[in-house]
Amino acid sequence: MAVQLRAEALEDRTVPATFTVTDLSDAGPGTLRAAVGLANAAPDADTIVFAGPAVGGIVLLSTAGGTQFGPNALEVTTPITITGSGETLSRETIQSLRLIYVSPTGNLVLSNLTLSNGLARGGNGGTNLGDDGGGGGGGLGAGGAIYNQGTLTITGSTLSGNTARGGDGGAGANNAGSDAGGGGGGGGMGGNGGTTPDNGTDGGAGGGGFAGNGVGGAAPVGGGGGGTTSTANGAAGGVANGGTGGAAAVNGGAGGIGGGGGGGGDEGTGGAGGIGGGGGGSGEDDGVDDANRGGAGGFGGGGGGGGEDNGGGAGGFGGGGGGAANGGSAAQTGGTAGTFGGTGGSTLATRGSGGGGGGAGLGGAIFNDGGTITITGSTISTNTATGGTGGVAGGTAAAGGAGSGTGGGVFNRLGTVTVQNSTITGNIASGDGGGIGNTATLSLTNTTVSANTATTGVGGGIEQSGGTAVVTILGSNLTGNTSTQSGGALDVFGGSATITDTNVTGNKSTTINGGGLEFRSAGTVTINRVTVSGNQAAAGFGGGFRILSGTVNILNTTVVDNTSAGGGGFSIAGGTVSIVNSTITSNTDTGAAASRSGGVSATVGTVTLANSVIANNTTADAVARDVRGTFVAAGSKTNFLTFVDANTNLANGVNGNVVGADPLLGPLQSNGGPTQTRLPLAGSPLINAGSTTSVPAGTPFDQRGSGFLRVIGSAVDIGAVEVQPPFPLLVSGPANGAAAVFVPNPAGAYPASPAATVAPFGANGANVRAAAGDVNGDGFADSILVTGPGVPIRVAVVSGADDTTVLVAPFDPFGGGFTGGGYVAVGDLDGDGTDEFVVTPDQGGGPRVSVFSRNPDGTTAVRANFLGIDDASFRGGARAALGDVDNNGALDVVVAAGFGGGPRTAIFTGASVLAGSPARLVNDFFAFPGTDAVNLRNGSFVAAGDVTGDGFADLIFGGGPGGAPRVFILSGALVSAGQVDAAQATPVANFFVGGNVNDRGGVRVAATDADGDSKADVAVGSGEGSPANVRVYLGKDFVGSGEPATFQDLGVFGGGALPGGVFVG
């Protein structure tokens, strides 16, 4: 049987494409506009790049496209990535033009770009130029640079100089003559409301649309609403998408999406605006007062003004209410404001016309409307959100209220905004939230919010409102922000807040309360490991905190040097407040005697104080009144105070409270961790004096975070920080199987002799290599040792609590009788409060990296086992270090090639190592640049620690055997960003120890913490055949790239030359 062949149609499939911008013009082939259009035409994830003459240039945008939310230059409806090379997108001369709109189906990624000079301006409300008629409300202006309803990712970019401006309310009619009149149309999100001419008309004006303006009525017919295109000004009888004006005694038609409502005819009600459209003004009354109100604005639209003897229409979200009008019969009410809009002006019983309320200006740079935004490594600066002014009134009526300018940089509505490693600075809001306004979900991590201003409102840095709103702030800085009213840094008026590992410093409330933080109508608030310092409520209460409501839990927090006229540190006037293990000192109350309490003033509410030091706070009469108010008696215990007001129930000797002694605290400074703290000095009565049972469950660390246990010794310390045992430096070298333990004093100086010697292997005839870390979680750094060459390799751990107890008995880490020796590194890879240890082989072994943790019974668990250098045949071994190179809160694993290899370095994320799939943080690189990358063939020694104090672990390299004693420290911030060349060109340090360029024994390196500050100290051990010595440089002494002028030498092991050199760890 013959088989009939036929052709089958192939599947229709489009593929992602890359479009190249070569022309900086606003239209035509090769332009950004053309590229976006091509990318939108297909559903795939396309990419746009810049090349040729467009690289680094300025794209001036001047053509407006259409949505109901106001004019946009570019619209994104599909997944698009725009990868810049430093280009700027900017508005040219068009009066109102937002730069980008991202639709609900859009997914936009922006990188390495600047967006500036965008302007989203709401339409103005209309008026009646005749005798009677309320002004229309102004429209919403939202997102000067970007309006997002989809998914938006911004990386390495700057948004600056953009503006969101609300439309102004229309003026009420002058009421000079005797003619009746219709109300002005409400402004839309782009178009202005219609204005009725002075011709005795009774018809109301149409509302503004996307960009089309409403049209005034012509008696007795109402004007048509503005439409959705820039040319669609309404005409009597209506416009596409704009509501049709009503004929005599007929209501104006409702606007479609983007359209304004039609004006009501004589005796007709104004039509409602569609989304983005303003409401139509109403006609004059029909003999029944307030029967024909102005039309309500749609989302973002202002309400229509009322005609004679009618009330104004309500504003939509962000829109101003319409003004009312009274021809002399009875008082009429202005339209209610949309959220953040201004209220329409009402009238008295006498004749008058109210002004329209101003529209809101929300999100000077970005308005997020239910979308998802992620901002990383970017700057949002000098943007402005300004509310529209209220319209003036005619006759005996009220002017319209001004709209609010909220979120000078960013406004978040019904969506999620995540900001990481970014800066939000110098933004201005005419109302609230100088930097950010939030009504939904906001998360800040490692971000600075600084120098923002709320000129007439609350929340100089951030303002949050709404019962379901959530703000989470981690590892960030809120500094130098100003509000006219309350909450210099943050105002929470509804919803919950969680703030962790954050500095709140130098903020100000100029007229009311909460120089740093204010919580009003709040839900649950958690403050943990935060420093609140140098804030001021110039004329109000609560220099650091003002708490009016909510459940507020404050733990491991330092409140110092704040000032107010009532409660220098805290003013508590409501809510349920718990303050545990906190330090509240040196705050000042400048107010009247009845309210004086430099530390904590609790006039209302339920307040519990536990394990807290509240000391040396002052009042205007220079008396150290630390607390005032009544506290929960049963829970308020083991606090330490210098002076209490007579109006308090805290007393010396009751519930372990101590009153009247000096707490012996050090200054506010870096004592480790991300925030500054005040550490108890030697002999402080705070040490081991608290109630351990008062420490909340799940609180392993003090204010400084990981590595600083909350409870050490017989009891918890009072205050925010726990005095930790000094961190030891382990030194080894002689072939005696032992390491010497050197313990620094509080200033970071080491004694001439070690505090102990640990030798878990006995006199085995080989040297050891050692590192210090807490493997059992008792707060003491233990000694982890591995044998050197010449004997079967073994690893053991000796307790740091007594330098005697063996926590892990000697074991073979590789299980094959290897005798080439090894190296060890220590750190808390999984973040559980106990350290893992990493073992690598020395010469003769492969580049094996084995990670272990200690079980409670003293056995070990293998957590990871992989090749750190991607060469299974290499037999020079490897050396490892642990540190948070990318400042993400988790340690990374740094691996350097050993003997026989070049100074090749690999960095793996700790999480991927523990997950069994080691992933590189950056591509492998050679530690030393230039010819050294080729000539040095015995690898390098490596350590990792934050020498600069910027939160990134820097990479500390030492020359390997056969090389000079060169110390080369690279910035972790640059390396983790993939900028290795830049890190090598501008090293943190680059020197030969003691200026010795001739030795060829290399130099061993270690990162330690001798002085307990936030900067890693560097210890170096002399190389093979050189006189035995250890030199220690404190992190604070690294100035420039040369060898620090200040250091300490430890003349170890009699100063004799050692064949294997001196090892430090």
Automatic annotation (TrEMBL):
SMART domains: PbH1. Residues 186-207, 268-314 are annotated as: Disordered. Residues 268-282, 294-314 have a biased composition (Gly residues). This is FG-GAP repeat protein. It comes from Urbifossiella limnaea.
